[in-house]
């Protein structure tokens, strides 16, 4: 066995707990199999642990396995390593492994679905050039039971606008655009863009509105003729508190009375203002919502068919009814 007295001392690392040790081994073994033969120092640098921790873990792996039909451990039931390389050259090479190939693997369809989701995430401004997402896509492609279908996430109508707004957020430049407010009036807005967020297929810009002198949320499909100005923003995310909830009440909000099945009330929590009067009407719950415009209300109600009914005002009832009628007419 090689004399290790001349090796550089390992970094001082607190001993891991049993659960952490198991999680580490579950990550270490597939990595070693993927890299064929690596040094102890390379593995330690990759996982951010001490050299001695890697040596201890590899020794433990070599004592692990699954008992065979005799309920005792035979040589082929255990992991094994190239001990000569490990003890003399500090190299790790797994020469025998068990159970790893028997682990459940994603089907080609499951992997393709996950890859599509990752491609969507890669399109978001905050994930541009994310090495972690690219690596994960590669692992999913290689780790499926068969080759996943080749697919791509199609761009939406908001993609060009998303790129412009994302650039403005990254560069800290003010944007100017026309905005259709809740009353259907087109207003010119100058906004310091702070964050881009999405709910399902809808995109929103959160920023400081110079017209209202307050934080506002703007929906992409109500914005028009957006330009990125050369003016730097006056309010940034460090001085403007962005609430956790995407929708914050404002004086411009529209109040709508609805009746909903009890099981969907929780899904409407973001729209129900604090102190809203709530009562039972038969098997339904009557309460009020605050929405920025009726277009958003239409989409909200359409997403809960048969469980939510608009009671008042009449303009809201009419907007939702016309939306539903237009949708039904397309199937005629």
TrEMBL record:
Lineage: superkingdom: Bacteria
Positions of the WCX domain: 255-326
PROSITE patterns, per the entry: WYL
PafC HTH domain span: 20-141
Domain WYL: 161-227
Name of the featured protein: WYL domain-containing protein
Record organism: Protaetiibacter intestinalis
